[in-house]
Amino acid sequence: MVTTETMRITTEISGVQWDAFADSHPAATAYHAWRWKHVFESAFGHETVYLAALDGDEVKGVLPLAIFRSRLFGRFGVSVPFLNYGGLLASTPDAAAALVGRATEIARERKLSHIELRHLSRQCPDLHARQHKVRMLLTLPQDVKHGWEGLDRKVRNQVRKAEKAGLAAREGGEELLDAFYQVFSRNMRDLGTPVYAPDFFRSVLRAFPEQARVFLVEHGTAPVAAAITIRHRDGIEVPWASSLREYRADSPNNLLYWQIIQHAIGAGLRVLDFGRSTPNEGTYHFKKQWGAEPSPLYWEYILVGRAAPADLSPKNPKFGAAIAVWKRLPVSVTTALGPHIVRSIP
Fold first, then answer.
1. pLDDT tens-place string over residues 259-272
2. Interval 9-36 mean pLDDT
3. What is the rounded distance in angstroms from the CA atom of residue 203 to the CA atom of residue 241?
4. For the chain, what is the HEC assignment?
5. Which of 68, 124, 200, 345 sits at a 20 to 30 Å CA gap from 48?
């Protein structure tokens, strides 16, 4: 615990207190919920340090941290990992400054190279920042009819094409996880990316049974596209989605997202977040054709003894050979090895 003139920073806070603050804060995201702490701990075994700024007994800010210790990538912290945003959340500048100050102390005490804070807006102008990613946001109409009519003609034709090819979409919960994982694990292998263990997604679905849903597109009984969504307030995000390459000509992704849009409109939601994209790459253009507009993400860094954070992205040339080999491995091998690697890639 550290004490400033106006703030007390502590980890001695209950989940009830934490969530009460997050639920009342207008800038809170789905990923500020206390239950993510248990997801990170149970699914990945990471140490979590959930900091709170208290003024007396009143919570004025929170900062959720996960600590990584990797032989491959070193020691660092992330707020929050494996998701697109959910960093610093404070109601006063003093609380924000005190939380960042304590996080900086933790980085030095734990000999971390950096702490990455994933934000929807610039929170700490004095910190090094990257704006290499955007989220793609679609404003939803009040009814499905206007949603369909508002789509680009090409998109509507691709949805019809998927239906004519015999593809069908449905949604559910944990009972669809195995089918989702069949698609997701194969697609990650094809991309050359280590895959999460199914226990991660199971933890998410069990921790958030009312907010998390699984969407599935099938050809007969074979799953060909799938997604998991997270609902928060008047919006819904698609943090994980995949489809099988051999069915690409049948446009399963279009049917998948149309099913998600119908669900969101039916639930009275106002915004669909298609998830993180790199500007002007393939997934960016796919999402933009639905009418989604880019909104920048700001990843800010507490740095210790370096001018910039290490590049852990797949675009780093030093990972090129490993990615090429990974793409040629059997899915059974990548699903066995992947979770041990990806737990160190936030």
1. 999 999 999 999 99
2. 97
3. 17
4. CEECCCCEEECCCCHHHHHHHHHHCCCCCHHHCCHHHHHHHHHHCCEEEEEEEEECCEEEEEEEEEEEEECCCEEEEEECCCCCCCCCEECCHHHHHHHHHHHHHHHHHCCCCEEEEEECCCCCCCCEEECCCEEEEEECCCCHHHHHHCCCHHHHHHHHHHHHCCEEEEEECHHHHHHHHHHHHHHHHHHCCCCCCHHHHHHHHHHCCCCEEEEEEEECCEEEEEEEEEEECCEEEEEEEEECHHHHHHCHHHHHHHHHHHHHHHCCCCEEEEEEECCCCHHHHHHHCCCCEEEECEEEEEECCCCCCCCCCCCCHHHHHHHHHHHCCCHHHHHHHHHHHHCCCC
5. 124
Lookup: tokens for 276? 């993180």
| Whole-number Å distance between alpha carbons of 88 and 73 | 24
